[in-house]
Amino acid sequence: MKTLSKIIALPVCAMLIMVSSSYNTYAQEKSQSATISKQHQQAVNRITANPKVKKAMQTIVDLEPETMSNLVLLTEIPAPPYKEDKRAATFAEMIKALGVDSVWTDTAGNVIALRKGQNGKKRVLLEAHMDTVFPEGTDVKVVKKGDTLYAPGIADDTRGLASVLTLLKVINQSNIKTDADVLFVGTTGEEGQGDLRGVKNLFSAAGPGKIDSYIALDGTAIGTITHRGLGSHRYRITFRGPGGHSSGAFGLANPHNALGRAIHYWVVEADKFALQSGVRVTYNVAVTGGGTSVNSIPFESWMEVDMRSESQERLAGVDQLLQLAVKKALAEENAMKKMGKDLTVEVKMIGDRPSGGNDPGLPLVQHAMASMKYLGAEPQLRVGSTNSNIPISKGVPAITIGSGGKSGNAHSLNEWYVNDKGYLGIQQALLILLAEAGIAK
To answer: What string of H, E and C letters represents the secondary structure of the chain?
Structure first.
């Protein structure tokens, strides 16, 4: 972990603050710096000079105990892949109790709360994802050791959900009215094979309508801005055959042989492709399986693979190499068999995250950088695979930022969180939100 050091002062001043940069779940490459325009820095300065905003910034600090209480409460409600409904029900009740114009759950299980703006000409969405990577039955009881909280999913992304609740409460208590409508959302399916199904639904015909600006809270690091989407394709590939006794049925086509060939052909060609000049591309054979016993020819052999790139064209290129490798391997194994039926293959896409990027000069990115600079952090622009991939790919301004504090061991049973000036993450989200939504007069 890295620490950006400064001395802390009152959060409502133009401050020098210790900003702790902990793990973030979305960083995939080295960060980049960019220039903040004077126009957007001045816009953030005007927002922070507003008496209501000053009150809100201090209220965020005052609400730290409640934020932490909400974090523990929500963490201890299991939210395994595709089974976020219990956590969603509690989150919906909590957000409804804070006061919004309407709350509903959509067809993908997203919890959506609408706080209407004065003119409603623009719609800004703030969200954190409700799902975790942990399967049903995982012990999610929060254990406290000193100042550290341990529990699966406590930082990724339950901390984000708790921050969304605090933000809404603070805006209401400070009597801040925005020009734009604001949607406060808990999304489903961000992790793994959830394949961003929640945010995909938000931008479908079943969604809440036009979204003009998108802010996701994921991870905890302060000062980082994911403004580029790292696209990915994921497949489960299964070779199937009749199977039989290793000696008595010798000569049958063997699915394992075909799978091994497919892996070899793909990796060799993908490696050449990756070394070509252009945007970085990665590829990985992640999981393999099949077979029943050492003295049996398997009836199936399967693998799950992942490939990623910021470039949709490069992603399509390494994907095409996979398809060719699978076809070549299948044809060769079937040609070599001495008896029995041909193998078949199923190529099933299990993940499709589009790539794309926002220009650093975009107002949303500039507002984020200016807000972080105000809070004492040095803004860093990054690429990552997060919920923001979907709006970015559709041309909607979108970023993913951290929710504050320190954390580590994401996606493991000993995931941890320390509330080391966690309020900074909520303060930065508040400033960005208000810069995008506008403060009504």
So the answer is: CEEECCCCCCCCCCCCCCEEECCCCCCCCCCECCCCCHHHHHHHHHHHHCHHHHHHHHHHHHCHHHHHHHHHHHHCCCCCCCCCHHHHHHHHHHHHHHCCCEEEECCCCCEEEEECCCCCCCEEEEEEECCCCCCCCCCCCCEEECCEEECCCHHHHHHHHHHHHHHHHHHHHCCCCECCEEEEEEECCCCHHHCCHHHHHHCCCCCCCCCCEEEEECCCCCCEEEEEECEEEEEEEEEECCCEECCCCCCCCCHHHHHHHHHHHHHHHHHHHHHCCCCCEEEEEEEEEECCCCCEECCEEEEEEEEEECCHHHHHHHHHHHHHHHHHHHHHHHHHCCCCCCCEEEEEEEEEECCEECCCCCHHHHHHHHHHHHCCCCCEEEEECCCCHHHHHCCCCEEEECCCCEEECCCCCCCEEECCCCHHHHHHHHHHHHHHHCECC
- Can you name the residues that pair with 185 across neighbouring β-strands? 112, 127
Is residue 134 scored above 50 in pLDDT?
Answer: yes
pLDDT in tens, 346-371: 999 999 999 999 999 999 999 999 99
Name which of 3-7, 217-221, 265-269 the model is least confident about.
Answer: 3-7
Question: Is the pLDDT reported for residue 405 higher than 70?
Answer: yes
**pTM, whole model, 2 decimals?**
0.90
pLDDT, tens only, 42-81:
999 999 999 999 999 999 999 999 999 999 999 999 999 9
Token pair recorded at residue 23: 């793990």
